[in-house]
Amino acid sequence: MQNTIISVKNLKKSYGSFEAVKGISFDVYEGEIFGLLGPNGAGKSTTLEIIETLRQKTSGEVIVDGMNLDEEPDKIKRIIGVQLQSSGFYPGLRLVELIDLFAGLYNRQVEPMELLRLVNLEDKAKNKYKELSGGQKQRFSIATTLINKPKIVFLDEPTTGLDPQARRNLWQLIKDIQAKGATVIITTHYMDEAEQLCDRIAILDEGKIIALASPDKMIDDLVTSGFERPKQVKAANLEDVFIHLTGKEIRDE
Ligand code: ADP
Ligand code: MG
Questions:
Q1: Parallel/antiparallel/unpaired status of strands 18-29 and 33-37
Q2: What's the alpha-carbon Rg for the chain, to the nearest Å?
Q3: Ligand 2: distance of its center to the CA of 203 in Å?
Q4: Which single residue of 46, 50, 153, 172 has CA 20 to 30 Å from 77?
Q5: Closest residue (by CA) to atom 27 of ligand 1?
Q6: CA-CA distances (angstroms) from residue 85 to 97, 98, 138, 158?
Q7: pLDDT (tens digit, 9 = 90+) per residue, 146-195?
Q8: What share of the chain is helix, strand, coil (3-state, %, to 5)?
């Protein structure tokens, strides 16, 4: 039996007369990487931000690690790590200074260099945030989610806009976070990423969950239904070619 760490029941969110989330229910299991997929505007960020205590729901029930969102939002905040949009950082502060700042906010003791090593940014410790490349900024923002040693980490499109090397580097980082025992909830528009990383995914469309299963099960079900790809699948794809030609090393230094 899997332990449920997040339970969402009949969650609804309206913005004025527009219902963005239309009564969704799902459980996230402890220790899994759970993906929330769906087209733009499906309600992914709204759903995450409600669970993160950053946005008010209209109705429904959310339980996070045994705590009811309506009753103990402050306790929930203490056990989660939320990836902030990059604009949330002071651009002129050095990475070590930013980590110290966050540690102070969370009232936590952290070893900034250890944290930076985890995301491959040791060399940049004395650099200012604004001096980082796109991939480095993403890795740094993930590092900041780990400062309070969270049980659950929320990542909203962490790899959007990254080159293939930086993206794969981030996948490894996310797997490492899971290996340390954390639960990860991630949104992405990259299906290969969801297939690689996620134990289970929910597909959201126009505010409703239209499928929820492991990637493997979803693919098997589609094939069983008689679906066939129009073309023979090749043993490699263009991304394999790109990585083969340009190497696995991250280049955003
Ligand atoms: P996703 O993350 O899946 O792209 P969002 O949760 O950001 O979707 O948005 C879901 C829908 O709610 C969209 O139609 C969006 O325009 C709308 N929406 C999001 N935030 C607001 C807001 N603060 N006010 C009004 N509408 C919003
Ligand atoms: Mg979004």
A1: unpaired
A2: 19
A3: 13
A4: 172
A5: 15
A6: 18, 14, 9, 9
A7: 998 999 999 999 998 888 888 898 999 999 999 999 999 999 999 999 99
A8: 40, 25, 35
